[in-house]
């Protein structure tokens, strides 16, 4: 059974930083894309940043220059370094992975971690 386990969320003041981590475990043969999505209260889930196995990245416009996504392929882990946080970054952040388990690729999600930025 595959699991994605997030850590690193919390409460921070505006302008502060947080680092999210997400580790995949279980029967994982390979992961091509990993990323982070977020969902604020009353809003739809949106993509924040994604990274391919080769390291290519893509960011949502509002986080460019403030957030950095990275991954450790050997550890099946993805990170999100969040700097210069703003109150509008407050949301539940979900880890995502498109991975191969048992011979085919599927989408997997973590349970979510709350990030709250106070003004």
3D structure, described in words:
- There is one protein chain.
- The chain is mostly beta strands.
- Helix content is 0%, strand content 61%.
- It is built from no helices and eleven strands.
- The protein has strands at residues 3-7, 10-13, 18-25, 30-39, 46-52, 57-59, 67-72, 77-82, 91-101, 104-109, 113-118.
- The radius of gyration is 14 Å and the shape is elongated.
How many β-strand stretches?
11
- Briefly note the structural class of the backbone: mainly beta
Question: What's the multimeric state?
Answer: single chain
Percent helix range? under 10%
Discrete helix count? 0
Low-pLDDT runs of 5+ residues are none
Could you give a short description of this structure?
The protein has 119 residues and is mostly beta strands. It contains no helices and 11 strands.
Question: Which key features would you list for this structure?
Answer:
single chain; 119 residues; mainly beta; 7-stranded mixed beta sheet; 4-stranded antiparallel beta sheet; 11 strands; 61% strand
Secondary-structure blueprint of this entry?
Layout: E1 3-7, E2 10-13, E3 18-25, E4 30-39, E5 46-52, E6 57-59, E7 67-72, E8 77-82, E9 91-101, E10 104-109, E11 113-118
Parallel strand pairs: 2-11
Antiparallel strand pairs: 1-3, 3-8, 4-5, 4-9, 5-6, 7-8, 9-10, 9-11
